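Encode chain A's predicted structure.
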Amino acid sequence: MAANTILTVNGGSSSIKFALFDNSASIPLLLRGQIERIGGAGAVLTAQGSKEREDFTQPIAGKDFPTAITGFLDWIRSQGIEQSLIAVGHRIVHGGSHYHLPQRVTPQLLQELHRLVALAPAHLPSELLLLETLQERMPAVPQIACFDTAFHHDMPRVAQLLPIPNRNNADLRRYGFHGLSYAFLLSELLRTEGTVAGHGRIIMAHLGNGTSLAAVRDGKSIDTSMGFTPASGVMMATRSGDVDPGLAYYLARTEKMYAAKFEELVTTQSGLLGVSGTSGDMRDLLQQEGTNPRAAEAVTLYCYQIKKCLGAYTAALGGLDTLIFSGGIGENAAPVRARICEGLTFLGIEIDAARNNATTTTATVISTDTSRVKVHVIPTFEEIVIARAVAHISNLPTATT
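Encoded structure for chain A:
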């Protein structure tokens, strides 16, 4: 194991994703992996090394999230990783209105993040538990927080505003999420296509279990579909996205469904899962849609909502030069990409069917040679964004916001 390494971690409700990088000039990836099925039967740790022979899978104790963290840390120690670390970088979904720049974790920062749990109750608790456990087990290793809202922090004021009475509360604003992914996608566009494309009118679509779109102009976010929380915007795997506010009052009156139950409904029981009644996994629904009308409806509604958002952001940008698909669905579901782009030739979007259907694990262009809008599929890599931030500040004093 290298003498200077950076570990990145991303804790979810039922998974822990991680990656290890060498702290050298290009920050090469050494390995990446995840623990899945936490809280269910058969939790497993998988990792892929820089060489295929280094790939492995092993069962791990994971009856709940704390148990899985313990198993993860025991594995890190057994592999000699802990002794090589210069720092650990954490994906933190929300930093509120104050925290957005990557920075070393301090007691003050932790206290503030605990206060902000109400802004992201499905994400922050597991992220903070992972952070605090690593901090306790590795007290000499700096922990660096990287915020998923940072990319959108300086959106125009009009895109930040919530149309509610002014309550003199700085936390009440639209934030946007998937920022680490968007930062990577923009950097890849700049690297492969150059400054003209990277500073043009861009829509990025991160389509996965969580789904959002971002409108980018001159290299900066001007709007994004997720807002105050990651539950807003277009429909997702189990999240409803935007719904009529009157629905909450109606269900409270007719079904005695008050705040906590309504939150559960729109975040864990809705979206693709809710409409189909069978699954929140797009792969399942694409297989079922020929025989299951509800599965077909779920796929159709998902594509329709994204198409509408794409049109709205083209208007906000004053035109469109580049469209990027990413995320688990965006990278792998060719039929979804095709249906979203169908009928959008008036916006300059023309998809080449053969290119779109080709299987690839690297960035590729799927538009026709004559398409006015260049359409890319770029696999996202949030971990490298975190690793770069950690490498930049790991030897500095606590960063300011």
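The first strand starts at residue 5 and ends at 11.
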